[in-house]
Amino acid sequence: MLENISRLTEMGFSPEQAQEALDITKGDVSRAIGYLFGDPIETEAPETTQEGKQLVNSPTDEEGDEKADDYMGDTVNVKNAQDIPQFNEYRQAPVEEYGSYQYIEDDSIPALNPQVEEANMLEERLYEQTKDEGVPTAIVLSKKKYLENYLIPVLVILGQSQKFYSLIMIDLEEKHDEEDKENGGDIEQAYHFLKEVQYLLYVINYREGKRQYINFDELIKNVPKDFKQKLTEVETVDEVILRIYETLNYNYNLVVGKDSPNYNKIEELLQSMVESIADNVKSGLYLVEIDNDSRSSTLYGTLNQLFWEANFKKLGYMQYERVSPVVSFHLVGDGDDDDINMADELPSQPIHLDEWFYPQIYLSQCISSVMDLRAEEVKHEEERKNLTREILQMNFFEGKKIDQVLKQSLNYLAKLVNEDIYQDLENLRVKMEDERAKNGAKQEESRELMNKTDIRNYQNIVDHYNQLGNPPLAKYELKGVILDDSRYFFKQQDDWFYYEAYSKQFLNNNKVTDYNIVQMEDFEKIQRVVYNHTNSSINGLTLIYVEDSNADSSLPQVNYLQTRFENEEHQFLQKYKEYQECKSPPNEESSDLPSNQLVDL
């Protein structure tokens, strides 16, 4: 490192500048020289160290959380083919019989969670003890790897948006008319579906209950026909998320009616509007799809390429006309494709996750500010390059170091005792040193100005836009990360939680035998999980950001939901008491869905 610093200082750069350039380029002298000459260097996400891997393997420091540890370890070390949805083999299944397509299993791959006992742990653990204080009630389904199951993580995460929660929590008891059979019973289906959605949001946001988990098969049983039909047409996981958003809007509109002020409000909440200036086209966008080729090390870097292309060649060509209060992104993995082969897995650009995000910097009204900032950056970049050239010209002449030539000349003149010429040459040497110092200071000032105008740093855009007296750009908060239909993170208030459902792979029926829900100690652990997860081209990922709001945080109350919850709590506590007295679980009907709802294929 000292040798590299010396090499750069010989070129006229200060030791501090040399050290900074080498740090940024990780010791690459050629790239460091380019950086000092003004070439842009993209900052990469932090490398995952061995310590980082240990954090990924252990999302909680509490002893006994083996299942969570198993998952996190598998994220790094095991390629789970059973987590990859396959769609093409089931294209001919009649929609009215199945309604969904099950993910394919590969028995040659080790089980995701080999510690799960053969017996169904769910019924046992429900009555073993009550829920820990401060942890949300887990939302559990009877089976894994069905496309409808994506409803659960999507709704759990959207339910952390106050705007979404308030829209959904309308009084359905007043609106519903049992005799209303308009649209072939679609309204009836929409009503039952929306009522189950309401109950899920109520359960996940009410931490005072005693039950560790609640089975939500009833929600899957009440999935509307339009959603089942759409599932027969999907080819990738991002399409499943898209269809969920569409069916939420469609069925909500059926229930509230066209005359309601809430009509189409779900669409307004979830769908942004994007405009292509070059093609003069506007289109609604529920979900931003990001393929492997478009990924950068950060979400900002990725969107910069999608909207503005590399080196900002098309700045202003693509922009948001409107950014919705909820913004969703899907990082497409090769595992989303029909024809995936595990042998095709390749390293992918891992992404460093941001907990806060400013998507409005890509708004049409913000583009002029971005262009002004970019023009300033280019100007300072050119100034810095010119200063660098001047510094080099003062250090080298025809491939020789000027200082060395001057030193040799001064030594020679000193022997001749020609003081006039010697002094003239010494004055020249001092003057050149002064000029180098001045240019070095100017170069440092230019570098600082470049940093302040660098539009790769989103904060520069936000600050510049706000300084012009514009209304502040809204900040968006990450509310959830979906790994697949049964593994996801969600943020509730200030706390992050991780949920995973388990099944015994050798049974080959995807029946959920156990689950885990743990509170994450800090966001850095989630960042490391995502970093490792996206390091493989196989893995996809869905991110949901919600506009930060200073509005009243109180949530609307719906009496019939509270009554239903309290009645179920009362029944649970009675059975819990019986179990504690006799230490044997009460007989209950199987929670499996009817065979005509979900079929093992």
UniProtKB/TrEMBL annotation:
Ranges for domain UBA come to 1-39
Q: Does the keyword Coiled coil apply?
A: yes
Record field: compositional bias (Polar residues)? 46-59, 592-601
Stretches the record annotates as Disordered: 39-67, 582-601
> Which key words are in the record?
Coiled coil
Task: Give a single Pfam family match.
Answer: UBA
Keyword Coiled coil carried by entry: yes
In this entry, which stretches build a coiled coil?
Answer: 418-452
Gene3D superfamilies, per the entry: DNA helicase RuvA subunit, C-terminal domain
Gene Ontology biological process terms from the UniProt entry = protein deubiquitination
Q: Which GO CC terms are listed, alphabetically?
A: cytosol; nucleus
Stored PANTHER family: UBA DOMAIN-CONTAINING PROTEIN RUP1
Q: What is this protein called?
A: UBA domain-containing protein
Tell me the organism: Cerrena zonata
